[in-house]
Amino acid sequence: MKLVRYGTAGKEKPGLIDQDGALRDLSAVITDIDAQALGREGRARLAAIDPHSLPLVSGEHRYGAPVAHVSKFICVGLNYSEHAAETGAPIPEQPILFMKATSALNGPNDDVIIPQGSVKTDWEVELGVVIGETARSVSVENALSHVAGYVVVNDLSEREFQLEHGGQWVKGKSCDSFGPIGPFLVTTDEVPDPQNLGLWLEVNGHRYQNGNTRTMIFGVAQLVSYISRYMTLLPGDVISTGTPSGVGLGLKPPVYLRPGDKIELGIDGLGTQRQRVLAHPNDR
Question: Please, how many CA atoms are within 13 Å of residue 239, restricted to the half-sphere of its CB?
Fold first, then answer.
């Protein structure tokens, strides 16, 4: 299934994309794409529905983040060896974890706002993992059974805030609009191998990132197992699994986002995002 949340920001309705690519309304079945809907029973209930029995939604609609009430937005740093190399960092021996504020969550095609005074706003296409079953100290072998599905993530980053302002990376990762996810959540039955997905990102039509999840240092099952040792993963939690090479920080000279830029990114089978970059209101 491809599950979506559509409508104006803060008033999204649940929906799904049928086999013909049409939007169907789920409002009569569930209240939202949330923890209850994403659990094993919730997904089984949705999978049993004939999509053509659901109301067809016509016209153009904004898509919001396809998961509601996310309790944790967890990110993995330097999880592709070529990305570690381009930033001058050693290959990590264990996953590098940091949090991204849930207030950064954004619709997949919503505007990206450069933070006030920022000169180093960067892009990162990543595979996002959405938890479907509560996970505590799960084994690698059992980890994927706790996953509801996958999403495209643009882990936008302000490199000066991240690397030059002291403390943890969260400062450069949590600005408003820095967490576009979607356009839809694709359930695991449609993603037989999360370690064989092409992912790419372009700015103003130039392709900067072109990778594949098979080159991750730590795969999805390893990450879910590892993270669940340190914190309980709840249905609806999102794990952003790292980015391949080609970020602006790693270019020589570095290239960063500017007002007026257009970002496009995608992952095989998970859809594409398109974002317009705007200056912060206080910098306009």
Answer: 32
